[in-house]
Amino acid sequence: MAAPKKGRRPAGGQGRPGRVLVLFLIAMVALTGGMFWSGHTTPRLGIDLAGGTTITLKAQAEPGKESAVNETNMNTAVGIIERRVNGLGVSEAEVQTQGRENIIVNIPKGTNEKQAREQVGTTAQLYFRPVLTAQAQPEKGTPTPSASPSGSPKPKPSGSGATVDKGKGDGDKDGKSSATPTASATTQGRPVSEALKAPSPTPTPSGSASGKPKASETPKAPAPDASTAALQQKFAALDCADPEQRIAAGKGVKATEPTVACGEPEKGFVEKYILGPAEVDGKDVDDAQATISQQSGQWIVTMQFTDKGAKKFQTITSRLSQQQDPMNRFAIVLDGKVVSAPSVRQTLSANAEISGNFDQASAQDLGNILKFGALPLTFQEQSATTVTAALGGEQLKAGLIAGAIGLLLVVIYLVVYYRGLSLVALLSLLASAILTYVLMALLGPAIGFALNLPAVCGAIVAIGITADSFIVYFERIRDEIREGRTLRPAVERAWPRARRTILVSDFVSFLAAAVLFVVTVGKVQGFAFTLGLTTVLDVVVVFLFTKPVMTLLARTKFFGNGHAWSGLDPKRLGAQPPLRRSRRASAPIDPKEA
């Protein structure tokens, strides 16, 4: 019979348990240090524990659109709102329908709570409309400039400096139509009826684009139809210096119809516009994100169009680049408000950027909204209620008390039944608890994980799962000792059998948690996520901590010699002498037979 190779370890043996244990402790220290370095030393709490805001939105079919308040559109709106809010990093935002036409949004307290609240009901209907007429008005409280023969001073357009691609200015230098001197504003452009019907150039009320009319001639503009006259009347009556009119202008208009709209106030002025039918919409935008312009150093929003949208964008910019100011401008209209109205001097590519008076927050808001798309319905905020954490705090307190009682009972059972082995189990539970806490604190800012009451329940349930793994291993070791083996070989021989059982048990628990996470929504996902996380940590702790510690303790006299309080006393376990010794012992001789 061939002799065993020198240095061969028994099955399941672990040659250097000390090295594995040191690596595990280094990893634990590194994670803990990373938690303190990041400044997030406590897990982020859900709305039931931290409080927050509950917003009720009522759906309304947008005038002029085919969308209706139905289950399909409501579910689409829920998905878009949820992606918007969670895209800002708001932890555990809950979005769900209530009844046929209401959506409930729960936003926990956090740094982005205000931004999320501003975005939940924003329809985000984006249109690119050509500018037909532009008129600047002073804001309320701004001194009115006096008239002069050359016209009133013209402020920069709303979103001045807004560019699409690069190298675009605010207007042509040549052929700019003259302005009618007024005491309050400057109006530019041709009559709406002429712009919409696109006839041959004719004199405008504010001058002529092709030359001055003869003194004996009276300029004749095309007779406007009823809709055009109504639009001009609406434009004349529109006061964009009034915040209420500025917000209401341009809303509820079909994309195929011209409209009036207001820009954003800038440098004491605000522009109002007559805009043509939309030629590009938000569905043609493939991606959008906030970034800092390398040229100006200001925050901008860059957009990438789809293939279909790129062709539309190329067509409109090719036509506008041949027009005079302001007819060479197009307005970027978001929910009826002109965000920017840049000029176009040449045919542009498939990429565009929106610039203006953006800071980081507003640029990220707009990019986030455009990225996830427009809501199919218009929503009106019905109520916004601040939720306190008092009730959740009481429930958390009761849950922690229940968890502490359960943990105490587990400790008592381990000490009474396993004695010295309970030290290994308690150290393993402590290591698992530290890793769970550290990872929860780190996952908050990383993926938006928030600790809620169901998640706390999942962590409490995990105590039993972790303790079960220790019990399986300890019982396997005891079985080996009962068969007559000493502790050191018993520890190594018991490990392969215990390992299989632990892996199968944890796999079933993790599979259940994964299925529960996929098929549920809201707070139940918190329970499933925590249960899955602690199950994975159970495998890590048992393999990299419990087994090496058990191997090292088997080399000590207290455990190796089977002390009565070690929990591995052969006599208390009813160990039998090894089978090979009973074969060598000679049978007693009966005196009668002798």
List the helices and strands and how they pair.
Layout: H1 17-38, H2 47-50, E1 52-60, H3 71-87, E2 94-98, E3 102-108, H4 113-120, E4 126-138, E5 186-189, H5 192-197, H6 226-237, H7 243-248, E6 259-262, E7 269-275, E8 280-281, E9 285-292, E10 299-305, H8 307-320, E11 330-334, E12 337-340, E13 351-355, H9 360-372, E14 378-387, H10 390-418, H11 421-447, H12 453-482, H13 487-519, H14 523-553, H15 557-560, H16 570-573, H17 579-584
Helix pairs in contact: 1-11, 1-14, 3-4, 10-11, 10-12, 11-12, 11-14, 12-13, 12-14, 13-14
Intertermini distance:
39 Å
Low-confidence stretches: 144-187, 197-223, 579-586
Count helical runs: 17
Structural class: alpha+beta
Roughly what is the average pLDDT, rounded to an integer? 74
What does this molecule look like?
This protein has helices at about 15-40, 45-50, 70-85, 115-120, 190-195, 225-235, 245-250, 305-320, 360-370, 390-420, 420-445, 455-480, 485-520, 525-555, 555-560, 570-575, 580-585; strands at about 50-60, 95-100, 100-110, 125-140, 185-190, 260, 270-275, 280, 285-290, 300-305, 330-335, 335-340, 350-355, 380-385. By secondary structure, the protein is an alpha+beta fold. The strands form three sheets. Strands 4, 5, 6, 7, 8, 11 and 12 form a seven-stranded antiparallel beta sheet that branches. The protein is elongated, with a radius of gyration of 37 Å. The model is unreliable at about 145-185, about 195-225 and about 580-585 (pLDDT under 50).
